[in-house]
Design goal:
Elements: E1 4-7, E2 10-12, E3 18-24, E4 33-39, E5 46-51, E6 58-60, E7 68-73, E8 78-83, E9 92-99, E10 108-109, E11 113-117
Parallel strand pairs: 2-11
Antiparallel strand pairs: 1-3, 3-8, 4-5, 4-9, 5-6, 7-8, 9-10, 9-11
Length: about 120
């Protein structure tokens, strides 16, 4: 059973930073795209960022481009989302996913971690 465990969520002030981590238990983690999505109650899950298995390709939503950075350490089976210059509209539950592409369909998901940005 694939297991993804997010950590690092919490509260921050506008302009602050948080770093999320996603630890995977699956041995073939190296071969999958890792992505971060977020969801606000009542809304659909929104793609935030993805990184390819070979580290050579990243994708960001327009809303976070230039502020967030996705990375991964295959040796540690862990992916990260560095979130800088946080805004109140970044408040959401953030989910890590593993898939063959940067799409939510058929993906494996973590349990989510809450990020709250407020003054």
């Amino acid at each position: 059973q694939v297991q993804l465990v997010e950590s690092g969520g919490g509260s921050a002030h506008p302009g602050g930073s948080l770093r999320l981590a996603c630890a995977a238990s699956e041995f073939d983690y190296d071969y999958y795209v890792i992505g971060w999505f977020r969801q606000v109650p009542g809304n659909q899950r929104e793609r935030v960022a993805c990184i390819s298995s070979g580290y050579d390709s990243t994708l960001y939503s327009d809303s976070v481009k230039g502020r967030f950075a996705i990375s991964r350490d295959n040796a540690k089976h862990t992916a990260y989302l560095q979130m800088n210059d946080l805004k109140p509209e970044d408040t959401a539950v953030y989910y890590c996913m593993k898939n063959k592409n940067c799409q939510p369909y058929g993906a494996y998901w973590g349990q989510g971690t809450q990020v709250t940005v407020s003054s």
